[in-house]
Structure formats: structure tokens, C-alpha cells
Amino acid sequence: RGGILGLFVLSPSQNSKAFGTINRKVIHIKMSAELNNIIAKVMKVPVSRVNDECGPETVDHWDSLRVLVLLDEVEKAFNVRFTLDELETIRTVKDIKSSLQHNHGISLGK
């Protein structure tokens, strides 16, 4: 398999691995974008301002009521239920991502 076309020819197992990795990355990007869109909408900030450090110290509209609305929207979007313990510990976007990953098996990627 020489020449330039040989660079693009993969065996079925290589093809499956390559596209599986690509598909997982695409899913992570879509899920992360979905979470960021939810946060931006509920907290009334541009999506470009949403990052892991967003929380009550960095977002003017981040208050206890909006956090409950936010977490309700996240539960609906990702089909999860946060426990009371989780609700008490979530303070930032990073906390939401961590809870989704460690308690609900949902990875949003890096």
C-alpha cells in the first residue's frame, strides 16, 4: 500500500478504532457544548464566557435559585438525577462536570 492513497487505507480493525476514537471525541465536544449552552442560557452570559471556573464569584447571575434551575436543566439534558450531596457540593462549572463524570459516568472530555 504505497503512495499517497496508502496513507488513507486502514484495516477494518484500524478503521473501527480510528472512527471510534473520533466518534467519542465528537460526542464529548457536543455534550460539552450542550452543557455550556445550558449554563449560558440560565446564567444569562455569552457562551464564550463559560469555563470551568464559572461560579458565584465570577458570574453575576449565579445565585441559589439559578443554580437549582441550572441543575434541573442539566438533569433533563443528560438524563441524570443529582443527589442532595451533589447539590450541596456543586459550586462551579468544574464541579458540575466532575459530578457528571464521577457520579453519572458522563465524560465531557478535556
Secondary-structure map:
Layout: H1 12-43, H2 64-78, H3 84-89, H4 93-104
Helix pairs in contact: 1-2
Gross morphology: globular
Largest sheet: none
Helix content: 55-70%
Spatial gap, N to C terminus: 35 Å
Number of helices, where a helix is a run of at least 4 consecutive DSSP H or I residues: 4
| Beta-strand residue fraction | under 5%
- The total strand number stands at 0
- Judged by helices, strands and strand pairing, the structural class is mainly alpha
Arithmetic mean of pLDDT: 81
Secondary-structure element series: HHHH
Low-pLDDT stretches are 1-8
User: What is the radius of gyration?
Assistant: 18 Å
Detailed description of the structure:
The chain is mainly alpha-helical and 110 residues long. The chain is 59% helix and 0% strand. It contains four helices and no strands. The relative contact order is 0.13.
Give a nutshell description of this structure.
This protein is an all-alpha fold and 110 residues long. It has 4 helices and no strands.
